[in-house]
C-alpha cells in the first residue's frame, strides 16, 4: 500500500505528477471559440466572477503557502487585488468583506477549524466563498458557495506534499477562470497558460530524479541545528514551505525568508558552515529577480554559509556560488514552485529518516486540526 516505500509520504511525493494532472483533468473544455476553463461545481456565475473587486485567500500551514502563490498568479492575470491571510488571524481583525469579495478557502482536509470559521465569518459578511479541498463532502466545501477539488486521493502522511502541489494547480485554475470571465486574458492566452499547467506533471517527474542527490545532501546535514531557506517572489512561499516541512518532520530549527529581507536582520544569523537553501528564479524570467538573488547568494557565501542552490538547468551563473547545485527543468516563473518545492520535500523527509523519525506521523501533529 506504500508502493514499496517505508512511508506513505515518500509514495505521496512520487504521486505528485499524477496528483497535479488529475486536478487539472476536465477543467479545460474545448468549445466553438477554442476552449474555456470550467470550475467543478460552478455555483459562481460568470457575472459574479466579473464583479469581484477583491480576493481574500484564507488557509493554514502548507495550504496557506499555496495561497501565497495564488496571489502572484491571480493579481498578474486579473489585476484584482488579492490578500492572503492565515485563517486563524483573518476573522479576528475585522476584514473588509462584502458581496463583491471572493474568499478562497484552501484546505486539504476540508475540516480545519480555523479555516472553517473563516469561511463562516466571510459568509456572514456576505462574501462569496470558493473552497479548494481534497476531501469530498467535507465541512468547508459543504458550507462554501463553490468548490474545486484537488484530486490527489487521500493524503495519509501528516506532512502535506501532493495536496500542496495540487492546491497550487487549483489556485491557478481560479486565476485563469477569473481572467477568462473578466477578459483580462484573451481566450488563446488562457488556453496557453492551461497548456503550460498541463505540461508540469512531466517536469515534476524529472525533478523526482534529483532525489538521490538531494538525499545525499540531507544525510550530510542531518545533524546541523538550523537550516535557512531563501527565496524571492514565488520562490519566497517555496522557502517558507521548505522550512515548514523541515520543522515538522525533522524537528529542526528552520526559517524561510524573503531574500530581500536578508539585510534587514537575518544576515546576522549567517555563520561558518550554516546551511542555506536558496531557490533561484528562472534566468529567463525577470532579470532583476535573478540578479538580486545571485548577489544574495554571493553575500552569504562570502560569510561562510554552505549554499545549497535550487536552480534551473543550464543556469551557469550560480555555479561559482553554489556548494551544492540541484538542477530543475526550465519553467515560466509562475510555475516554477511546482518544481522547486519537490526537492525541499525530499530533503525534509530524508533528514527526518536519517534522524530516525517517523515521517508519516511527526510528533505532536494531527493530519486534521479540528480545534482552534
Ligand atoms: C504541513 C501541513 C499542515 C496543513 C494545515 C492545513 O505539512 O500538513 O500545515 O497544511 O494543517 O490543513 P488543511 O489543508 O487540511 O486545512
UniProtKB/TrEMBL annotation:
GO terms for cellular component: cytosol. It is an enzyme of class 2 (transferase). It comes from the Bacteria. Coiled coil: none annotated. Signal peptide: none annotated. It catalyses: D-fructose 6-phosphate + L-glutamine = D-glucosamine 6-phosphate + L-glutamate. The keyword Magnesium does not apply. Keywords: Aminotransferase, Cytoplasm, Glutamine amidotransferase, Repeat, Transferase. The keyword Cytoplasm applies. The active site is at residue 367. GO terms for biological process: carbohydrate metabolic process; fructose 6-phosphate metabolic process; protein N-linked glycosylation; UDP-N-acetylglucosamine metabolic process. It is found in: Cytoplasm. GO terms for molecular function: carbohydrate derivative binding; glutamine-fructose-6-phosphate transaminase (isomerizing) activity. Residues 45-184, 217-362 form the SIS domain. Its main location: cytoplasm. Catalyzes the first step in hexosamine metabolism, converting fructose-6P into glucosamine-6P using glutamine as a nitrogen source. Homodimer. This is Glutamine--fructose-6-phosphate aminotransferase [isomerizing]. The lineage of its organism: Bacteria, Bacillati, Actinomycetota, Actinomycetes, Mycobacteriales. The gene is glmS. The chain holds residues 255 to 626 of 626 of the full protein.
